[in-house]
Structures are given as structure tokens and as C-alpha cells.
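Async update (no meeting this week)

Hi team, since we skipped the sync, here's where things stand on the single-chain job. The sequence we agreed to prioritize is pasted below, unchanged from the tracker. I ran it this morning and attached the output directly underneath so nobody has to dig for it. Comments welcome in thread, and please keep replies under the output.
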Amino acid sequence: MSKFSIFTLFISATIVVIVAELMVNEYVKYPGMSKNLAASVMQAQNAANSEPVTGDITQQEPVVSAITYATVSKSGFKDFSLQRVPFNGILFESIDLRDFKSVPVEVNNLLENNRKQVAAFYEFRAGSRMLSSEVYGLLKEKSGKLIGAAVNVTDSFGEGSFYVNFVERPASAFLIVNMGDNVYALTYLKDLHPMIKNLLAEISQGASAINK
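Output:
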């Protein structure tokens, strides 16, 4: 039931109670009052029910992830599956974001033959370019403070991008991209870089189509 309907019922019930008390207390003195008050109640209820609902009762459409089976498949990945997992607050197993509550984060693991994890995709749903820039800046700042890692800014993708190079994990790439209204953090085996480029291109095309 909408907020407007609840409010209407509350007003109607209040009017009925007041009228009943007046009818009981004043009927002896003014016998004709009961009819007039009853008519007033009916008019008030009809007027309330006829007023248009001006409040926002529309439901927001659920946000669709940019990283889906379709976009990953178009990027050239074969024999893979996506596994949705909750975000535990630690990005790339190193960047502590447990106190980060600004935007929702969706995480998908990429599994090869449903067994071996070869990549993980983090989607920070900022919802606006201004907020996505702030999230991107925060991730860049935190990455620069890591011990045993170095930030390599390339700006090869989206409105800005950089790699986090971990000394002890040379076989994997760690890429953060500010693209459109969201920020994407991707970790993957370096052999998969051509498909990752295709995936980012698919995401960019999808974002452009939505903004048209």
C-alpha cells in the first residue's frame, strides 16, 4: 500500500471518530446536526480519494552489471564461467577497503573449465562520473601506499587507468580503470591481456549506448 493511501485512511478514520463524538454529545441539542455531519464525512472521503497521487511511487529498475556472461563471451574467452561472490572488503588481497561504504561493489570470479580461477572482476557502481572519479582517486591513493608494490599510471582505458605491480606476483596483472559512471578493478593472468582489452571495449560500448 502506498504512503498516500495510508495517509488517506488515517484522515478518514480520524474524521469518523470526531463526527461520532460530536453526534453523541450534540444530538440532543441539535437533532439535525447528525445528517449534516454525515454528509460532510462523505464529502471529505470522496475528495480525499479523488485527489491525484503526486508522490514518487515508481520503483527504480535494478542496476544491471556491465560484466556479464555475454560481455565476457564477446571478449574472446572460451570454456569459462562467472562466479558471483560477495566483496570481503579486501581488493587484490592487499588493499583494505573494509571501511569503504560509499558505493556497492560487485565481484565476479572468472573460472576456466569451472575449476581454475584465472581472473577476478570488481565493479564499483558509483552511478555518476563525479563519484567514480572520487572512488578512482581513493583506490589510486591506497595503491600508492602499499609495501612491495608500485603504481604504473598508463591511462590506456576509460577516463583513467593504472596498474598495481606486485613484486611477489609477477604472473598476474592488477588493473584499475575509471570508465563512465563506474570504476573497474581487474586482476588476471597476464596471458589474458588481449581478452581483457576486448572486455573493457565491450563495457565502454555498453556505457556509451546507455548514455545516448
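Quick observations from my side:
The helical segments are 3-26, 33-50, 69-74, 129-144, 193-211.
Strands lie at 80-85, 90-91, 95-96, 105-112, 116-124, 149-153, 160-166, 172-179, 182-189.
Reply here if anything looks off.
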